[in-house]
Amino acid sequence: MVCGVLVSIVAINCGLLFKISKSLLVEWQEYLPSAFQLDQISDEVKSTAAITNWLSEGLRSLLPPHVHANLNKQGLTGHSRGKVSCALAVGKEGITTSLKFSALIGIDPVDGMDKGKQTPPPVLTYVPHYFDLDGMAVMVIGTGLGEVKRNPLFPACAPKGVSHEDFFNEFRKPACYFVAKDYGRVAIYAR
Question: CA-CA distances (angstroms) from residue 52 to 9, 64, 71, 95, 137?
Fold first, then answer.
């Protein structure tokens, strides 16, 4: 589990403003990292949809009486296998949620080891502006060093052809994109 405080991320592009200030970020890993367990993506999408659907009924009982969650303003984010978030947002394999998302943030999303070697189900179609999210705001954050191969035996962490640039190219407006060019995939959390 990785925890950190986001002091302030502000990105203005295409008329969008995303601001996260003094928020707690908690990330969990739902899979065992292994080249032999690529079929778990569908299960992760289903699990994320089930958690989202639970919010409308189950969250209220856990909140203090004077606190009311506005579930019309919820965002969806994912790091690395951010393709899970994207797959849910675009309704891949017919998996949908009872609640709508108002924003999607992909933090260095990756769709496999290389173009043509995408993890099932492949999310990227390589058709520009293919994903129509009915006006949902989208932000894609990439790293400049993620596509650099560091070991001859393994692919880069975010290989060119299946990473942030490719995801951004498939989203329709309103969408914004920026790259932390001097950082890699882990360093994006450390700064």
Answer: 24, 20, 10, 12, 18
- Give 95's Cβ-side CA count (13 Å radius): 23
Q: What's the pTM value of the predicted model, to 2 decimals? A: 0.77
Chain segment 105-143, per-residue pLDDT in tens: 988 898 888 888 888 888 999 999 999 898 899 999 999
Element (H, E) at 46: helix 40-58
* Token pair for 132: 């129509």
- Mean pLDDT across the chain, nearest whole number? 75
| Beta-strand runs (E) in the chain | 2-13, 16-27, 75-79, 103-107, 137-143, 175-180
State both tokens at 29.
């890993």
89, exposed or middle or buried, with CB in 10 Å at 0-12, 13-18, 19+? buried
